[in-house]
Amino acid sequence: MRLIESTYISLDGMVSGDAFWGAQQGFQGDAHTEHAAKVLNSASALLMGRATYDVFAMSWPERDGVLADVINPLPKYVASRTLTDASWNTEVLQGDAVEAVAQLKASGEGTLLKYGTGSFSRALVEAGLLDELQLWVHPFVAGSGEGLLSGITTTHLDLSAVTEVGNGVVILTYTPKA
Prior knowledge:
Blueprint: E1 2-10, E2 14-16, H1 18-24, H2 30-41, E3 45-49, H3 50-59, H4 66-71, E4 76-79, E5 90-93, H5 97-106, E6 111-114, H6 119-126, E7 132-138, E8 146-147, E9 157-164, E10 170-176
């Protein structure tokens, strides 16, 4: 199974924070939604950390439309040390999350699509489990927040694709350097 992380990012490398979430919303349009649906349609399952799962599980089941029609029925895996029971077609990964993801990857064909960022993302990169990193670069400077891969050891990636989705947003797709 391939593991793809797809995440929004500001020009200054932020992926969260008060300034980030308000600012990025103004850049979405039809091409953005179309590409997001294409990425979702390629997924066999979704992977999230606990914080992302909590936000998604509160909002996505109530939504409809092209993205919700794909995201809601997909199987989901959540990495959490504290969550014991999950709804929304979700399985909580047991034990060490990195080992659990390695087992998922070895278990079959398809694509595991990861949303969210933070320590779980960093651990997956450092373990060499990420097959592709899609950065949806938004044309604004957040000024504060959490950096995508802050604190990670040096990791080299190759640029494999650049996709423009309108409103100045580009998706930079990277793969681990051979």
